Amino acid sequence: MKLYCLSNDPNKPCHILTFKEITLMLDCGLSMQSVLNFLPLSFVASSKLSNLPNWMPNDVSDSDLEGELKENGDRIFVDSPPEFCPPLNKLIDFAQVDVILISNYLCMMALPFITEGTGFQGRVYATEPTLQIGRLLLEELVNYIDQCPKASFAAQWKNLIHKLPYPLSDSFKPKSWKQLYNMNDVNASLSRIQMVGYNEKIDVYGALKVMPSSSGFCLGSSNWIITSDHEKIVYLSGSSTLTTHPRPMDHHSLKNADVLIMTDLTQTPISNPDSMLGVLCVVVGLTLRGGGNVLIPCYPTGVVYDLFECLSVKMQDLGVSNCPMFFVSPVADTSLAYSNILAEWLSSVKQNKVYVTEEPFPHGLLVKNNKLKHFKHVYSDGFSTDFQEPCVVFCGHPSLRFGDVVRFIELWGNNPRNCIVFTEPDFDYTEALAPYQPLQMKVAHCAIDTSLNFTQANKLIRDLKPNTLVVPECYTQPPVSAPNLTDYVIENNHDRTLIPYKWGEVINLPLKRKHSQIFIETGVAQKIVPVEVKPGISLSSITGTLSIKDNVHSIQDLSSSVNKASKHVKYEWGSLNVTDFLQKLSQEGISEPKVESHGNVVVIHLQEEDALIQLEDNSTHVVCTGDETLRTKLRSIVMQCLKKF
Amino acid sequence: MPDIKITPLGAGQDVGRSCILLTMGGKNIMLDCGMHMGYNDERRFPDFSYISQEGPLTSYIDCVIISHFHLDHCGALPYMSEMVGYSGPIYMTHPTKAIAPILLEDMRKVSVEKKGDQNFFTSQMIKDCMKKVIAVTLHQSLMVDNEIEIKAYYAGHVLGAAMFWIRVGAQSVVYTGDYNMTPDRHLGAAWIDKCRPDLLISESTYATTIRDSKRCRERDFLKKVHECMDRGGKVLIPVFALGRAQELCILLETYWERMNLKAPVYFALGLTEKANNYYKMFITWTNQKIRKTFVQRNMFDFKHIKPFDRSYIDNPGPMVVFATPGMLHAGLSLQIFKKWAPNENNMVIMPGFCVQGTVGHKILNGAKRVEFENKQIVEVKMSVEYMSFSAHADAKGIMQLIQHCEPRNVMLVHGEAEKMEFLKQKILQEFSINCYNPANGETCVISTPVKIPIDVSLPLLKSEARKFSALPPDPKRRRTLHGVLVMKENNVCLMDVDDACKEAGINRHIIRFSSTVHLNDTGPALATAHKLHGFIKENLPQWPVVFAEGEISIESVLVKVEGDEDEQKNVYVSWTNQDEDLGSYILNLLNRMGQ
Ligand SMILES: [Zn+2]
């Protein structure tokens, strides 16, 4: 069994697992850190962003590079449609992938890169919410890039990477970066997904079974359990033990794995999501009361649902409930609608509301009462009439490189009464804000990441008791930002093997298969005669016709037509008692044998019959020439003196 | 051979109060727990005394599975759990869990408040009963205990209806509940994978009907309603609050819109909005089309259909009224019927099956006068139409389902005996599998083949595979596996004999036989050996005959030639006891050569 690591971002994982001749891809996350190097896409031509000065390295006079790089303060940005870093395609041909398992909607953004135009012919499995909400995220992303087409694509800068300043010089594999896929790719790719339910066992070519189990992180998020007859591999990605809106994590099914692959832990190991939510509420209250607007860059799903619910209550308490909340996203309406029809995937508190015909989330009601208004874009019909300040705006994209958030920063950036609050943990907020500096608006950082922190992860591992634990290498060392925090690692423990991996590596996983499974059918089962050879241990020899169908082995009764090879055979065991044997010989009329002993060996010579029987502890040799009647008689006497199974 | 035992307490050659007891692998499972609408006495509930003469059922039943919210499938549940007594788990889908208590309460009210039934369950009992329910999602594999595994499949029929696959050990059963193999206006078609159960228990309401196309039936229905409107008549459509009602509403809504009709359409139930809300929140259980468009337009927000008030009964002019219950056995639909029946301009459309004893059943059978308990007699002059909108599988659908899941046996329930007989013959002919249709209280025993999963050592499988692929290919050749089962505590493992002895800590005793045959064959010994090799191969074409270093070996049989060039040769033959047949066969062969 081998594990290939194709993504350099443990929070946007992509692995290949080969096992029993099946090639499985575990998640296809898309690392978006690359987009931070690009200039934000603004749909207003006069924006400050489009008027930044060009930048050239000192000793370079290549005219092809002209205009590719822009300067803002001490930072350099690429002026081109943003590019993304898809999973590594050098280690494996995607056409060979049999099955893709997706853990949650945040871990599938690279799917079109994997399945389209690569010869991929396998199956993709995801839960219904993962598919439906994942579609929203993919559509939103494509929409954001499409609404601001750029005239030219910058490419030359990649050849001069060594001459560029940090952090551009440190970019991860820029030559492998790609333009985003289009809607056709998205639709084609998503049409390959087969929806599955939690704890649905899916057969993979008879060799393996895969099963998603609730991971508690977001709507439809799952961990995957991969089993053969005797081995169990657990792939744990994007899990949460906190109580929010999704169905809680199912621990039980993850226990006692031979191999546990664990990734996608928290990106904010130091902060606690509850206190961050508290800070957020305070910041929102203060800003609104001071007459300022709050801008919350976000994804169109996930924690925002909790924020709508929580903030609407808080704003009431703080006396600012007359300030509206705006949710601006090309998929805002669908996101709100979907979240309320996925009751079966929600926490029991939310689920129980459905039984009394209440919607699980209050945002339907908030929309009805005009507390929450949703629009596709800032330029959509009705937005300008409904728009009212001060207000709270939720919109994408959290990288601040595209989407309506760009427009809001341009609008509000110069007013110190306004505040931008970062809640999504995917991007470093100072990096995200760099192209907009200098800014007057306040900045608050309240990243809410509900996925497992190191304490929770270590506790979970102790609970799950895997034989082998496989984690990204970075989880075995303290965070780069806080090297003294040695608690923020996955513990090594002598009870299990810890195997770290990193990008581009192929790891051999220790799994020695000793057993397989076979089905015994009626005829064979009826012929089983257990012989107790020791207290508690019985043996029975069995013979049958072996049939192998879809990798499933079964053994059936021998049909009468088979050749001599297939006779039911039994085995003798133990030692033969010489006195007993001699007595039986004489009973059968074979008299006066000559008996000689040489150590452990007893030789019995039947002079008259010209036969020799040599007895040892664990063997009997009958040498008998010619006379078959005699040999058959001797055989039956020997067998009478021995036990068999 | 292990058995599966099935006893219908209801729905055996009968429609109404579905309740089937299933026993396999020492586990007892109750499939559905319905009531019969046609009876007011003890016959309305299944006869639970069959299970236990007295006292609670908990120790006799391991779990209860409810297929869908129709009362003939869940109507006796609070009675069973709260009055007879059962505290074990009850399984149903989320929509069923949401909707069933509403229908139960509705029925309770009709029975207790209108009919004055005694000995009926209370509202609190419905609540307590529902607390015992565990909701399941489609395709989720759920372990009831260490041995019972269940899995729900989409059944169409009504919102949340499910078919259940149940496994105990190596035995498995599929219970369909009511299902529908063709998608309708708001639900999709039933689906199941090739799960090859030992037994498929299928409903057979429409066992002999091959229904005409859906479109035709709809057109027919709309035409009749339209004609009635034109002549100023009133149309009564008795329905259950959830299910067919929503489909017919969608149908009328679009027709009224298209034809620009003005006659009012009423839905006579406070529940309407609530019911439609369920459809909205469980939209993932409806069909593709509704799911796709729900964000833009909620199919269940009706423009033309308005709430009904009792006072409208005597309003003049045409109207269409949906009223509950669906079989005209009580409540508002019956009240309206009594008023409208004597007018020949009016029409009642029965969109579903009616159980025996109900007014619906009587008028569908042509009754022109209906007598009620209080001696009131109603003349039926209105036209009575039966529209099979009830989404059950027809004969074709049932055959399709059998084809999809490939059961070893089929059992028909929830249908009429003569119709079942017809379908039974058809199943026997087409699939050559056994088909049963026990009556209520009759136990049916089905033997299932043994299939015990055990561990097998990989080296054993590999050595067999090596041997098999070494032989010349022959499509007719069977593969043979031979090994020793080691049974130790609860572990059973198949391995080769040497590993088995090692595992058990015993010594094998090997018996070997040797014999010498004299051959008159001049020339070098090796040449003789070559000749013998050819000869043996010729005689044992199916066997792996190996020739190496002057020795011939076939399995454990060894043949060795000795002797100088111009002498008689001694041929030694030796074999172990396990190859006795082969060894003695070869010895005989050589002996005949030597003669
Ligand atoms: Zn039904």
From TrEMBL, chain A:
Q: Which domain of life is it from?
A: Eukaryota
Cited SMART domains: Beta-Casp (SM01027)
An example GO CC term for this entry is: cytoplasm
Q: Where is the Beta-Casp domain?
A: 304-433
Keyword Secreted assigned to the entry: answer is no
Could you list this entry's UniProt keywords, alphabetically sorted. Cytoplasm, Nucleus
Q: Name one Pfam family in it.
A: IntS9_C
Protein family per UniProt: Belongs to the metallo-beta-lactamase superfamily. RNA-metabolizing metallo-beta-lactamase-like family. INTS9 subfamily.
Recorded protein name is: Integrator complex subunit 9-like Protein
From TrEMBL, chain B:
Among SUPFAM superfamilies, the record links this protein to: Metallo-hydrolase/oxidoreductase
Cofactor section: Zn(2+)
Protein source organism: Tribolium castaneum
Q: Which protein family is named in the record?
A: Belongs to the metallo-beta-lactamase superfamily. RNA-metabolizing metallo-beta-lactamase-like family. INTS11 subfamily.
- Which keywords, in A-to-Z order, does the entry hold? Cytoplasm, Hydrolase, Metal-binding, Nucleus, Zinc
Q: Tell me the ranges covered by the Metallo-beta-lactamase domain, including all copies.
A: 16-210
- Tell me which InterPro entries the record gives: Beta_Casp, INTS11-like_MBL-fold, IntS11_C, MBL, Metallo-B-lactamas, RibonucZ/Hydroxyglut_hydro, RMMBL
For this UniProt entry, what is the primary localization, expressed as one broad class? Answer: cytoplasm
Q: Which residues form the Beta-Casp domain?
A: 245-363
Q: What is this protein called?
A: Integrator complex subunit 11
GO biological process terms, semicolon-separated: RNA 3'-end processing; snRNA processing
Q: Name one GO cellular component term.
A: cytoplasm
| Localization per Swiss-Prot or TrEMBL | Cytoplasm; Nucleus
User: A Gene Ontology molecular-function term?
Assistant: hydrolase activity
